[in-house]
Amino acid sequence: MRDGVLTEATNDYAGPILPGFRETAWIQKSPYFHRAAKHGVRAYDLYNHMLMPGLYTDPVEEYWHLVNHVTLWDVGVERQVEIDGPDGFEFMQMLTPRDMEKCAVRECKYVLLTTPDGGIINDPVLLRLGEDHFWLSLSDWDVLFWCKGVAVNAGLDVIVREPDVSPLQLQGPKSKDVMVDLFGEDILDLEYYHLTETQLDGIPLVITRTGWSAERGYELYLRDARLGEKLWDVVMGAGAKYDIRPVAPSEIRRIEAGILNYSSDIMLDNNPYEVGLGWTVDEDKRSDYLGKAALARMKKEGIKRKLVGVEVEGAPLGAWIPDYWDVHADGRKVGHVTSLTYSPRLEKNIGYALLGIDHAKIGTGLRVSTSKGTRAATVVKKPFVDPKKDIPKS
Q1: Annotated domain spans of the chain
Q2: Residue 15 has pLDDT above 50, yes or no
Q3: pLDDT at residue 1 is higher than 70
Q4: What is the topology classification, in CATH, of domain 304-386?
Q5: According to the 3-state scheme, what is the secondary structure of the chain?
Q6: What is the pLDDT of residue 278?
Q7: Which of 89, 141, 188, 225 is spaced 20 to 30 A from 304 at the CA atom?
């Protein structure tokens, strides 16, 4: 979820320095913006035309608090596309290679939205609230306009809109303790990648067992922006005895977990197979969808490049990279780094690189042109930590 960073901070991790921004009415802010600011946000990301907290203290400090305690994330930038109406199910089937026949009401799915030529528009988490009622919880892209454009010529009775919904993420091993204090023991029955609809002190919510951290976590989808500060205060109050802290989405933890970021690891010109997401293409799906023929052809012909895990040798290179560094092998450029971080747990620089298929085999030696000089690197397996996702499923 991290891309460009706007900041007044000057530490080694903060990236490009800007003098700040004007707080104007036309810069859309989440319902939690002012509460997060009071907790000392030092940097913001631009995400879905909004400002998202990108750093409070230090990325390594925030990482360890996430791993050991409980953290609250202002992710109101995760805008929703709502699909509803009599033909909502049929329209959703058109948008994704995943088969909605395999998604029950009150279940969530990680999905790709594909173009007619097999490219990737976005990789949202889908929430199925009813037989014909869906939310797409977005990564950074103008998906609302894409869906509205598809709907124009679909010939279906469907409503496509952006609802008044703003998520908060509660992430970390003690998140379940906070949730029990807020909602009671029954909340522990909510399964991984499932949802429930409820209220908290009169605040209407959809709650999911999802998150961008690969830790135990929940997302609280607020359904009335006017109640954002009330929700923030209630959650922070319940979390006080568990040492809750607001933090930014952790680049370190998501890379350790093998989570991809749209607009860096996944781009419009990628296809699911080359970024390791072929499992999201249900090849037995009977109904047609955008890109079905193209993806079948790609699967048959094979890929020419591949997103791989890499380890880069040497001293720590920071929490995130300022550019997509070139990767070389055999005296020539063979790809580029898409994301990289220093993992304090593994004590290694780890990340992803998009490489030509001839250099994508595990164990292949590479050279990466970093901002701190050329470094040796190796193609390795990913995810780097907890490959079976036992932690978030616990």
Answers
A1: 5-79+164-254, 80-161, 304-386
A2: no
A3: no
A4: Elongation Factor Tu (Ef-tu); domain 3 (2.40.30)
A5: CCCCEEECCCCCCCCCCCCCCCCCCCCECCCCHHHHHHCCCCEEEEECCEEEEEECCCHHHHHHHHHHCCEEEECCCCCEEEEECCCHHHHHHHHCCCCHHHCCCCEEEECCEECCCCCEEECCEEEEEECCEEEEECCCCCHHHHHHHHHHCCCCCCEEECCCCEEEEEECCCHHHHHHHHHCHHHHHCCCCEEEEEEECCEEEEEECCCCCCCCEEEEEECCHHHHHHHHHHHHHHHHHHCCEECCCCHHHHHHCCCCCECCCECCCCCCCCCCCHHHCCCCCCCCCCCHHHHHHHHHHCCCEEEEEEEECCCCCCCCCCCCCEEEECCEEEEEEEEEEEECCCCEEEEEEEEEHHHCCCCCEEEEEECCEEEEEEEECCCCCCCCCHHHHC
A6: 98
A7: 141
Domain 5-79+164-254: CATH superfamily is: Probable tRNA modification gtpase trme; domain 1 (3.30.1360.120)
* More confident position, 6 or 253: 253
- CATH classification of 80-161, choosing from 1.20.1050.10, 3.40.720.10, 3.30.70.1400, 1.10.3720.10? 3.30.70.1400
